[in-house]
Amino acid sequence: MALISDEVAGDLRKTFENLKDSVRLAVFSQALADPESEQVRRLVEELAALEPRITAETWNFVLDTEKVEALKIARIPAIAIMGAAKDYGIRMYGLPSGYEFGSLIEAIIDVSSGDSGLSAPTREALANVQKPVHVQVFSTPT
Amino acid sequence: MESDNVTADGIEVTGFPDLAQRYRVSSVPKTVVGETQEFVGAGPESMLLKHVQDAAGVVIP
Fold first, then answer.
1. Are strands B6-12 and A90-93 parallel, antiparallel or unpaired?
2. Residue contact B8–A91, C-beta within 8 A
3. How far does B24 lie from chain A, in Å, by closest CA?
4. Can you give the pLDDT of all 142 residues of chain A as single tens digits?
5. Residue by residue, what is the 3-state secondary structure of chain B?
6. Which residues, numbered 31 to 60 in chain A, qualify as contacts with chain B under a Cβ-Cβ cut-off of 8 Å?
7. What angle (nearest 5°) sits at the alpha carbon of residue B24, between those of residues B19 and B28?
8. Among A102, A109, A78, which Cα is nearest to A91's?
9. Whole-angstrom distance, CA of residue A72 vs CA of residue A49
10. CA distances, A52 to each of A25, A64, A102, A113 (Å)
């Protein structure tokens, strides 16, 4: 059975019509170590099937160590949401259900447009950040 | 997206009890910036920016 219902799939297809550039979703899972991670892989594959500009790459967290290091994946399940040409460093960990599913869709839209939606002063200030800063937002399923 | 130095993770914390413990996540959403800055709830953009700047050691005139 599909994780994304027909109704939601229809809404998403409409939403994705407005995408600008293509988006790569790299999923890291491992069936034996973490069965839940396979759900995330399925979810991302279903998303990619809705829209040709969204592509899914699936990687094994245990076997594909080069990719895990290159994308700095810390744990599974993980999704890296990347632009066609650029990785902005956006990652989602865990199963994006409920409100977090909305966050994943928003991340896809932002990455596709290359527009963070932040105000001009904030953009200017962020451009002056010279040291690596890691932001982690914790949530629970809603 | 506006800085190559800033990376962002969204973490569904029930699957990662080790992280919940490490970052003392008792109510959500909780945002941790760097290893030292944190706040609970949805803050305004300016507040998140301030935390990022503090974590990066940016001196604000």
1. parallel
2. yes
3. 10
4. 789 999 999 999 999 999 999 999 999 999 888 888 999 999 999 999 999 999 999 999 999 999 999 999 999 999 999 999 899 999 999 999 888 999 999 999 999 999 999 999 999 999 999 999 999 999 998 7
5. CCCCCEEEEEEEHHHCHHHHHHCCCCCCCEEEECCCEEEECCCCHHHHHHHHHHHHCCCCC
6. 36
7. 90
8. A78
9. 26
10. 12, 25, 20, 16
Across the interface, whether the CB atoms of B12 and A95 are under 8 A apart is answered yes
Q: Which of B15, B25, B52 sits opposite A133 (nearest CB)?
A: B52
Report the predicted TM-score, pTM, of the whole model to 2 decimal places. Answer: 0.95
Give residue for tokens 């399925």: A42
* Start-end of H helices in A1-142: 6-16, 35-50, 65-70, 99-113, 120-127
Partners of residue A82 on adjacent β-strands: A24
Tell me whether strands B37-40 and A23-29 are parallel, antiparallel or unpaired.
unpaired
Question: Nearest chain A Cα to B56, which residue?
Answer: A131
Q: Tell me how far apart the alpha carbons of residues A67 and A88 are, in angstroms, rounded to a whole number.
A: 16
